[in-house]
Amino acid sequence: MKKFIILALTVFLFYGCTLDNKHKNITLVTNSWIGYSPLFYANEKGDLKKLGIKLIVSGSLGEASDIYSVGKADMVSGTQHEYFWLKETTKDIYPFMLLDKSYGGDMILSNKNIRELKNSKKIYAYLEVNSVNNEILHYFLKKFSIKMNKITFINKNQIKIQELRANPQKPVIIATYNPYDIVLKKHGFKVLASTRDSSGLVVVDGLFAKIKILKSDKKIVLELKKVLDSSIDAIRKNPKKSYKLISGYLENISYKDFLNSLKKIKWINKPPKKLLSKLKKMGYSERYIIR
């Protein structure tokens, strides 16, 4: 009888641990962008861990996509640009939650004005080539009729790009996003254009996942949506408390810069039908998006 009890207890503990931990292997990769603050907040509060989700913070949008593309992550954050690229390269990816719409958070910086850039024989363009930076840069060049043949493209992640200093002898344009623009402005660069003043350029951020996760771990995905909705509400209601919790993920920017950064996005975690319709026309799948 005693042996039976011990055996039963062992079986219970084994299967109990298996059931409790069978989903605790979901990896979500992201990067330091103000629109991903809800992820950082949820991670610091321990909510992601409770769902069995491990958060990886990479140095750039492109790096996050690369980590997902080689199978090192089950979920990834990104803009529609990264989604379309991953859709072509990995096939197995669907958006399941929208987070934010850029409202000045993505931008073009330069040490020259438009007239000076047009008159320059050579311009050095710094960007993450395999990201929405590429789309924003080309939009800018077309908008201001700056010839492509004078551009030298330099592919770097934002951590490296923010080390640049404005050299008056070297015409430079930078495709970047918040919070990396804060340091670059201190280094002498100025904003020439952004998603706030470019009505023809829509940049939305969301979460994407493998179809297996969306189907077999649907309960976790739905809980993640609730957690992130709650995190967004917390950031809105108490930005100071939120700042103290997540500033380390955002290059340790000041509280003032944090508040200014939040003004450069619009939360779309509960997207209106009009936005979903617009994204659908762009080829953005809404099949699994949780509203």
SSE class: alpha/beta
Count every helix, treating DSSP H or I runs of 4 or more residues as helices: 14
Radius of gyration: 21 Å
Compute the average pLDDT.
Answer: 91
Write the layout of secondary structure elements.
Elements: H1 2-21, E1 26-31, H2 37-44, H3 47-50, E2 53-58, H4 61-69, E3 75-79, H5 80-89, E4 94-102, E5 106-110, H6 114-119, E6 123-127, H7 132-143, E7 151-155, H8 158-161, E8 172-177, H9 180-186, E9 190-194, E10 204-209, H10 211-216, H11 218-237, H12 239-246, H13 255-262, E11 265-267, H14 273-281
Parallel strand pairs: 1-2, 1-3, 6-7, 6-8
Antiparallel strand pairs: 3-10, 4-10, 4-11, 5-8, 5-9
Helix pairs in contact: 2-11, 11-12
Give a verbal description of the structure.
This protein starts with a helix and ends in a 10-residue tail after the last helix. The relative contact order is 0.18. It has helices at residues 2-21, 37-44, 47-50, 61-69, 80-89, 114-119, 132-143, 158-161, 180-186, 211-216, 218-237, 239-246, 255-262, 273-281; strands spanning 26-31, 53-58, 75-79, 94-102, 106-110, 123-127, 151-155, 172-177, 190-194, 204-209, 265-267. It contains 14 helices and 11 strands. The chain is 45% helix and 21% strand. It is of the alpha/beta class. α2 packs across α11. The radius of gyration is 21 Å and the shape is globular.
